[in-house]
Amino acid sequence: MSLPRASFNKKELNLILKVYGKMVSIGEWRDYAISLLKDLAVFSIYRHSSEFPIYRVKKFMKKSNKKEIFTVVEMNGKILRSGNNLSDVLKPLEMKIIRRVK
Question: How many whole angstroms separate alpha carbon 32 and alpha carbon 49?
C-alpha cells in the first residue's frame, strides 16, 4: 500500500493560477512546474523556462489534526509569507501585479 502524496486541490490550483495568469498576461512570468512529493507539493514559477524558479508556492501536508501550511519562497530562499490560508499567503505575489500594472 503506497502512501498518498501531497498535492494541490482544485480550489488551491485555481487561486495560484489566477495570480500566475495575470503575471503571464503582463509578460513577467513565462512558465511553471508542479512537483508532488511525499509531504510537500510545490508550484514553481519561472521568468524563463531555462532558469531557476523565481518563486515557489509550497504546500506542506498536514500532520494528523493540524492544517496544511502554505509558504511563498523567493529564488534566494527568503520566505515572503507563510500560513494556513493560501489566499493570504499569495498576497505578496498579488502586490507585484499591482506594482507592475501601475
Answer: 8
Question: Among 63, 69, 30, which Cα is nearest to 48's?
Answer: 30
Nearest CA to 100 among 20, 31, 28? 28
- Rounded CA separation 23/33 (Å): 15
At residue 65, the 3 state secondary structure works out as: coil
Q: What is the torsional sign of CA 70, 90, 19, 47?
A: negative
Phi and psi at 4, nearest 5°, equal -65, 145
Which pLDDT tens digit goes with each residue over 16-75?
A: 999 999 999 988 899 999 999 988 999 999 998 778 999 999 999 877 666 779 999 999
> In angstroms, rounded to a whole number, what is the distance separating the alpha carbons of residues 88 and 95?
11
